[in-house]
Backbone:
C-alpha cells in the first residue's frame, strides 16, 4: 500500500531539476541501491502509465466538476448587470477559450510517450472530453448572458441597423 | 394609495425636468400684451389721469401707465363676451360686454379688481346690430345728494337700466315696441331726466326718435318723433349736452341735405327744430366733447368747423374753422379729438401727416368759452411712418396742455398696431400690440460667431508687413489665453440654465454655445413683420409690409404661411419667404410674397438697401387668391403656389427651379380643401401639364374623402415632421413593434352638426385612405378639438359632455393613439418606404388609451429635437392660462392596466391611471399668465436634449425644455475645481515620489 505512494522523481523525464548541478560541497552520487529488479520496474512503469492516463481524464473532466460551484456563484451574483456578475460571466466566457487554447500544454505531462507530447493526436479522447466540458462551461456562460439580456437574439437588438428608403410618392403639406 | 401612486408617477415624469425658481427669467421670457385698441367711439382709448384705458381687438380691457407704458392691469374677456362700451369715473372703470351689452362690470382703476359684475339681460336675448356696439351706451351719473354714483346703461338699443353703486337695479325701462323700427343709440342724463335718442326707420330715410324718462322712477315722460330726414346713415346725428349751473341742456344735431339742423330737448319734448342756414356740411361727428356742447362739422370743401352749443343762449354756432383740413397731396386726412383742459375749458387736438415736412403735425386749439375766444398753435413731431404705418386713432390728454406744448400728451394708435405716447415731439413709449395677433411664426437659427480676418492676403507682402499683420491678428491672444486658463481652472462654461442672451456690448447676431438663441420671425395681420430675439423677447427688427399698387386704394395684408427657404448652413444666410393675401379695399385679392433676410429684415430681392428703410415691398406673385402653398423639399426650396385655377406657380421662377419642379411633378400628391360653404370637402390632387389649357402645371383631383352628408372639414393639421431616430419600439422581450411611419399622414378634423359629433381622421393624402377615425361628442354643438400627430403618435383632446350613468362624468379627455405596422411585434411592412398604393399600408395595429385632463386646452404641440432621440413630450396651453408639459411616459398608450410585469417594467411602462396629474412641476410658464394661446411652435436647438418652445396668442412666452433631461451636458454641480485639483495633486505626488522610488531601487541593487 505504501508502495503506491512512492515518489518517483526519476520518472519526470523533462523535469528541469534533473539537470541542475549539485550544490557546492556535494558530489553527485548514484543511489547505492541498484534498481531492485527489472520486473519491478516494468510494473512501476505500467502503473505509472495508467496513473497518467487517469490524471489526464481527471484533467479532461475538471471543467465539468467546477460547474456546480460556478452555477452557485452565478446564482448568488444575481441577474443584474453588475460588476460581480459581469466578472463571473466574463470568467465563464473566457476560461473555456483559454483552456482550449492551452489544452496541448496542459495535457503534455500526461502524454504516454515522450515524443511529440504537444501534438493534438496525443490523448485524443481526453482532449475531446476536455473540449466538450469547456463548451459546457461556455454554454452556461451564454445562458447566463441570455438571461441577463446580453445576447442579441431579438429583432430589437438589430433595429439600429435596419434602414428605410424614401417613399416613392411625395406629399406636400 | 391612489394619491401615492400619482405622486410616484409624477415624480417619475418630472425627474427629468422641473422649472427651478432660479431659472425663471433666464431660460424663459414672457411678454404681456393687450392687443390693438378699438377705435370706435365707445371703446377707443382714453386718458384718465395718468392712466390710459383701452379696449382692444383681443377683447381685453386694460389700463396702461401713461408715463412708462406698462400694463397696470388687464381683464381678458371671453370670445363670446365682446366689450361693447366702457366708461371711467373717478377711480373706477365700467364696461358693458356681451351680445347687446348683457353684462356690466366695474373695476377698480388702480388695481383692476372686479368690484361689480351684473347681468343686465341674458346673452341669448342680445340683439346684433351693425356696427356691433350700436345701441349700447353706459353712463355714470353722480347723485350729489346721496354722494354716490349710479349707472345708466342702454342695452340692446331699447332698454335702459338704472343701477346704484352696489349694482342693485333701481329701475328698468324697456321700449314698449321692442325690436321695432326705433333703435336708440344715445343716452343723455341730467339729474331729473334721461333722454334717449335714436334713429327710427321710415320710408326711404331715417327720422329721429326721442324718449324722455324720469331719472328717479324710470317712468316715461314723453316720446316724440322729430321729423328729421336723415338720408345718409353714415353721418347720423350728434347729441350734445351743455351744462349751465345745475341744469343740463341737450341738443340733437343732424344733417338734412347738407343743412345742419338742431333740436333742443326738454323733458316734455316740446320744442322747435332750428336750422343753421347758409353753410353746407358734409358730415358731423362727435369728437369727445359732446358733454361739453362741442362737436365737429366738416364742410363740403373739407374745412372743419368746431361747433358750439350754448345752453344759455340756445344758440348753435361755429367757434373755430380749421380751413385747410381737407386731405390733399401735401397732407393726410386729419384726426380731431377733443378733451377738457385742466381749467375745464375745451381743447381740440388735430393730428395729420404733412408730406411737405415729412412729419406729423399736431395742432392744439385752446377755446375759452367765457371770453368767446379761441387760439390755435401747433408743432411737428417726427412720427416714423415707415416703421409704424399711418395714424389710425388719436387720443389726447387735454389736461396736459398748458401755455406751451412742452407737456402735451397724445396717444396714437397706428395701422401697424402700435400704441405710442408722444409728449410734445418726443415719443415716450411705444407698445407693439400687433404681436398679440401673430398669424404665423417660425424659428430661424443664427450663424456662428465668425473670426474676421483683418485683411485679405495680398500677393506682394513684405516680411515686415506680414509680421505686423500677424501680430495685429494675435492681439487677442493674451485675452484668449487668460480666458482659457480661467475657464479651465474654474469650469465656468456656458451652462444650459444661463441666459442665452448676448452679454457683450456690441450686439452681433450670433448664436450661443448651444443654439438656444434664435430669431423668431413673426408676421401679424397689421401688415408688420417682426424679428424677435428668442433669448430675451426683444424685437430686433421690424418691417412694415408695403401694399404695392393697393396703396392708392388702401387694403390689408393677411399672412398665410411662412417658409424658411435658406438656413445658416446655406451660403446666403438665413432667409424667409412670407406668403400673404392682400385684400385691397376695392375687393381685389392678390397673393404677395415677401422675401426677407431673417437676420436683418432686409429685402432679399432688392439689391441696394435704402437707408433709412422704406416699406418692404412684396412681389405680386399671383393675381388672385391662393388655394394653397407648399415648399418643395429640394435644394432650392422652391415655393409652389396653387392659384384659384389650381395652376402651380413657382417662386423663384428660375429655369433651374422649373427643371427641379418638373422632376418632382410625377410623384407630387396634394390634399386640398374645397371651401364651398356647406360642403367643405378634402380632395387629393396630382399635377399635370396640358399646354392647351394652361402654360402652368395644373392640379387635377384624384380622390375625394367620402364623408357622411353634412360633415364638414374644419381643419387640416399636417404631420409634425422631424427626424425619426428609431423606426421601432423595442419591447421588454426584445421583440420590436415597428412604428407606422407613413410620411403622407395628415390629420383632418371635421364637424357634423346634425349628429352633434366631431370627427378626427388620419388620412394618407396620396391615396385618400383613412388610417384612423374617431368620432367624439361635440360639447354644446361646438367642435373644439385640439390634435397633433408626430411620427406614429396621435394625441387629441376634446371635451366630453356625455355621460350615460353613474361612475361616468363629463370632462376634458386626452386620447393618445399609436400606430404600429402589421398585427403585432416583429411584423414589419416597411411603411416608411412603402408606396401608398400598396395593400400593406392599411395593415396596421393601433394602441389607444384615453386620459382625463384636469383643464381644457387651447393649443397642443410635441417637442422637437435635432435628431429625434430624446423623448417627445406634449406641450399644451391650458385654460388656466399656463403652459404645461405632459410627459410621454404618462401618455403612453401601452400603459398596462395591471401591475407592470418585469418585461413591462423594463420598458419603463407604468400602470394606467385615468387621471393625468395636475402637477405644478409640469408647468413650464412659472406664474406668468399666458392667455388665449393660439399656437405653440417648437424648434430644435443644437443640444439634442433640449427643445425650444415659443407660444403665442394674446401673450408671448418662450422657454426651453429637456424632455429626457439634459443628458448631453455636464451636470451643473459637477465639481471641476475638485477634478483639476485632484489631477494636479496626483501629478505633484508623482513628481515628488519618482526620484524617491528611483533612489530606493538603486539602493536595492546594491544591498
Residues:
Amino acid at each position: 500500500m505504501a508502495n503506491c505512494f512512492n515518489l518517483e522523481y526519476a520518472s519526470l523525464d523533462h523535469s528541469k531539476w534533473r539537470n541542475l548541478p549539485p550544490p557546492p560541497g556535494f558530489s553527485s552520487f548514484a543511489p547505492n541501491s541498484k534498481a531492485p529488479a527489472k520486473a519491478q520496474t516494468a510494473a512501476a512503469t505500467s502503473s505509472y502509465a495508467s496513473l497518467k492516463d487517469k490524471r489526464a481524464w481527471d484533467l479532461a473532466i475538471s471543467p465539468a466538476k467546477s460547474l456546480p460551484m460556478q452555477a452557485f456563484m452565478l446564482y448568488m451574483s444575481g441577474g443584474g448587470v453588475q460588476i460581480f456578475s459581469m466578472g463571473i460571466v466574463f470568467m465563464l466566457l473566457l476560461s473555456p477559450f483559454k483552456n482550449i487554447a492551452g489544452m496541448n500544454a496542459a495535457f503534455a505531462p500526461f502524454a504516454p510517450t515522450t515524443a511529440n507530447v504537444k501534438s493534438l493526436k496525443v490523448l485524443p479522447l481526453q482532449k475531446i472530453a476536455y473540449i466538450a466540458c469547456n463548451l459546457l462551461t461556455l454554454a452556461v456562460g451564454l445562458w447566463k448572458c441570455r438571461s441577463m439580456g446580453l445576447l442579441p437574439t431579438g429583432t430589437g437588438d438589430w433595429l439600429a441597423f435596419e434602414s428605410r428608403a424614401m417613399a416613392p410618392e411625395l406629399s406636400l403639406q | 394609495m391612489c394619491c401615492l401612486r400619482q405622486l410616484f408617477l409624477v415624480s417619475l415624469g418630472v425627474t427629468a425636468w422641473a422649472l427651478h425658481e432660479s431659472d425663471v427669467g433666464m431660460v424663459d421670457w414672457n411678454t404681456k400684451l393687450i392687443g390693438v385698441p378699438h377705435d370706435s367711439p365707445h371703446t377707443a382709448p382714453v386718458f384718465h389721469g395718468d392712466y390710459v384705458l383701452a379696449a382692444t381687438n383681443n377683447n381685453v380691457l386694460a389700463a396702461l401707465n401713461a408715463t412708462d407704458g406698462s400694463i397696470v392691469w388687464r381683464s381678458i374677456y371671453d370670445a363670446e363676451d365682446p366689450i361693447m362700451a366702457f366708461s371711467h369715473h373717478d377711480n373706477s372703470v365700467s364696461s358693458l360686454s356681451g351680445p347687446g351689452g348683457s353684462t356690466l362690470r366695474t373695476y377698480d382703476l388702480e388695481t383692476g379688481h372686479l368690484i361689480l359684475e351684473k347681468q343686465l339681460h341674458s346673452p341669448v336675448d342680445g340683439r346684433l346690430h351693425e356696427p356691433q356696439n350700436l345701441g349700447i351706451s353706459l353712463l355714470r351719473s353722480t347723485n350729489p345728494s346721496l354722494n354716490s354714483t349710479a349707472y345708466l346703461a342702454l342695452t340692446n338699443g331699447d332698454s335702459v337700466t338704472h343701477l346704484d353703486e352696489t349694482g342693485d337695479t333701481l329701475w328698468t325701462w324697456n321700449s314698449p315696441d321692442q325690436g321695432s323700427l326705433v333703435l336708440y343709440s344715445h343716452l343723455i342724463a341730467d339729474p331729473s331726466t334721461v333722454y334717449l335718442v335714436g334713429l327710427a326707420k321710415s320710408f326711404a330715410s331715417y327720422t329721429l326718435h326721442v324718449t324722455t324718462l324720469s331719472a328717479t322712477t324710470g317712468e316715461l315722460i314723453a316720446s316724440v318723433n322729430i321729423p328729421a330726414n336723415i338720408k345718409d346713415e353714415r353721418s347720423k346725428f350728434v347729441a350734445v349736452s351743455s351744462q349751465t349751473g345745475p341744469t343740463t341742456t341737450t341738443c340733437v344735431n343732424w344733417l338734412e341735405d347738407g343743412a345742419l339742423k338742431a333740436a333742443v330737448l326738454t323733458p316734455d319734448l316740446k320744442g322747435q327744430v332750428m336750422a343753421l342756414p347758409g353753410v353746407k356740411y358734409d358730415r358731423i361727428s362727435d369728437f369727445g366733447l359732446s358733454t361739453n356742447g362741442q362737436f365737429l362739422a366738416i364742410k363740403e370743401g373739407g374745412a372743419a368747423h368746431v361747433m358750439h352749443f350754448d345752453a344759455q343762449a340756445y344758440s348753435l354756432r361755429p367757434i373755430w374753422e380749421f380751413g385747410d383740413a381737407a386731405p390733399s397731396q401735401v397732407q393726410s386726412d386729419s384726426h380731431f379729438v377733443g378733451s377738457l383742459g385742466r381749467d375745464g375749458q375745451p381743447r381740440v387736438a388735430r393730428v395729420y401727416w404733412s408730406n411737405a415736412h415729412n412729419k406729423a403735425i399736431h395742432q392744439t386749439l385752446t377755446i375759452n368759452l367765457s371770453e368767446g375766444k379761441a387760439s390755435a398753435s401747433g408743432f411737428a413731431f417726427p412720427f416714423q411712418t415707415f416703421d409704424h404705418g399711418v395714424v389710425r386713432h388719436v387720443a389726447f390728454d387735454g389736461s396736459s396742455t398748458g401755455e406751451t406744448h412742452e407737456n402735451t400728451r397724445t396717444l396714437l394708435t397706428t395701422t401697424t398696431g402700435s400704441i405710442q405716447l408722444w409728449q410734445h415731439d418726443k415719443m415716450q413709449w411705444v407698445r407693439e400690440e400687433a404681436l398679440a395677433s401673430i398669424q404665423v411664426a417660425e424659428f430661424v437659427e443664427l450663424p456662428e460667431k465668425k473670426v474676421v480676418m483683418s485683411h485679405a492676403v495680398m500677393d506682394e507682402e513684405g516680411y515686415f508687413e506680414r509680421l505686423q499683420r500677424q501680430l495685429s491678428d494675435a492681439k487677442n491672444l493674451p485675452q484668449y489665453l487668460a480666458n482659457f486658463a480661467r475657464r479651465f481652472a474654474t469650469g465656468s462654461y456656458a451652462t444650459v440654465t444661463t441666459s442665452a442672451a448676448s452679454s457683450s456690448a456690441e450686439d452681433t447676431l450670433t448664436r450661443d454655445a448651444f443654439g438656444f438663441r434664435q430669431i423668431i420671425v413673426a408676421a401679424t395681420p397689421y401688415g408688420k413683420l417682426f424679428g424677435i430675439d428668442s433669448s430675451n423677447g426683444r424685437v430686433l427688427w421690424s418691417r412694415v409690409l408695403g401694399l404695392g399698387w393697393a396703396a392708392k386704394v388702401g387694403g390689408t395684408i393677411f399672412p398665410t404661411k411662412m417658409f424658411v427657404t435658406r438656413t445658416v448652413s446655406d451660403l446666403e444666410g438665413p432667409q424667409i419667404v412670407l406668403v400673404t393675401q392682400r385684400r385691397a379695399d376695392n375687393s381685389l385679392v392678390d397673393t404677395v410674397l415677401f422675401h426677407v433676410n431673417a437676420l436683418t429684415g432686409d429685402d432679399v430681392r432688392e439689391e441696394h438697401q435704402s437707408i433709412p428703410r422704406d416699406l418692404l415691398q412684396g412681389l405680386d406673385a399671383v393675381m388672385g387668391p391662393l388655394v394653397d402653398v407648399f415648399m418643395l423639399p429640394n435644394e432650392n426650396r422652391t415655393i409652389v403656389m396653387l392659384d384659384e385655377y389650381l395652376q402651380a406657380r413657382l417662386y423663384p421662377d428660375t429655369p433651374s427651379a422649373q427643371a427641379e419642379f418638373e422632376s418632382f411633378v410625377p410623384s407630387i400628391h396634394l390634399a386640398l380643401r374645397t371651401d364651398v360653404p356647406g360642403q367643405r370637402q378634402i380632395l387629393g390632387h396630382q399635377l399635370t401639364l396640358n399646354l392647351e389649357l394652361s402654360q402652368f402645371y395644373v392640379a387635377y383631383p384624384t380622390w375625394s374623402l367620402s364623408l357622411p352628408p353634412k360633415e364638414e372639414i374644419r381643419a387640416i393639421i399636417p404631420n409634425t415632421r422631424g427626424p425619426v431616430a428609431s423606426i421601432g419600439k423595442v419591447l421588454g422581450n426584445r421583440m420590436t413593434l415597428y412604428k407606422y411611419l407613413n410620411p403622407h399622414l395628415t390629420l383632418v378634423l371635421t364637424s357634423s352638426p346634425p349628429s352633434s359629433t366631431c370627427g378626427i381622421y388620419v388620412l394618407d393624402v396620396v391615396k385618400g385612405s383613412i388610417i384612423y377615425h374617431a368620432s367624439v361628442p361635440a360639447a354644446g354643438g361646438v367642435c373644439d378639438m385640439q390634435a397633433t400627430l408626430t411620427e406614429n403618435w396621435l394625441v387629441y383632446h376634446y371635451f366630453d359632455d356625455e355621460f350615460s350613468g353613474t361612475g361616468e362624468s363629463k370632462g376634458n379627455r386626452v386620447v393618445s393613439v399609436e400606430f404600429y405596422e402589421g398585427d403585432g411585434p416583429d411584423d414589419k411592412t416597411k411603411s416608411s418606404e412603402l408606396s401608398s398604393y400598396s395593400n400593406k399600408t392599411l395593415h396596421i395595429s393601433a394602441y389607444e388609451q384615453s386620459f382625463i385632463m384636469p383643464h381644457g386646452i387651447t393649443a397642443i404641440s410635441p417637442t422637437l429635437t435635432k435628431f429625434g432621440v430624446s423623448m417627445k413630450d406634449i406641450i399644451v396651453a391650458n385654460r388656466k392660462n399656463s403652459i404645461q408639459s405632459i410627459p410621454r411616459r404618462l401618455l403612453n398608450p401601452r400603459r398596462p392596466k395591471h401591475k407592470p410585469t418585469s418585461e413591462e417594467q423594463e420598458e419603463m411602462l407604468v400602470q394606467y391611471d385615468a387621471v393625468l396629474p395636475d402637477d405644478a412641476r409640469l408647468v413650464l410658464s412659472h406664474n406668468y399668465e399666458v392667455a388665449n394661446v393660439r399656437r405653440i411652435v417648437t424648434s430644435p436647438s443644437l443640444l439634442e436634449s433640449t427643445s425650444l418652445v415659443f407660444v403665442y396668442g394674446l401673450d408671448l412666452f418662450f422657454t426651453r425644455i429637456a424632455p429626457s433631461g439634459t443628458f448631453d451636458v455636464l451636470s451643473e454641480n459637477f465639481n471641476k475645481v475638485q477634478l483639476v485639483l485632484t489631477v494636479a495633486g496626483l501629478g505633484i505626488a508623482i513628481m515628488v515620489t519618482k526620484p524617491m522610488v528611483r533612489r530606493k531601487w538603486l539602493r536595492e541593487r546594491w544591498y
Q: What stands out?
A: Chain B touches chain A at residues 630-633, 640, 664, 667-671, 718-719, 726-728, 730-731, 733-736, 741-744, 746, 765-766, 826, 830, 832-836 (CB under 8 Å). DSSP finds eight helices and 63 strands in chain B.
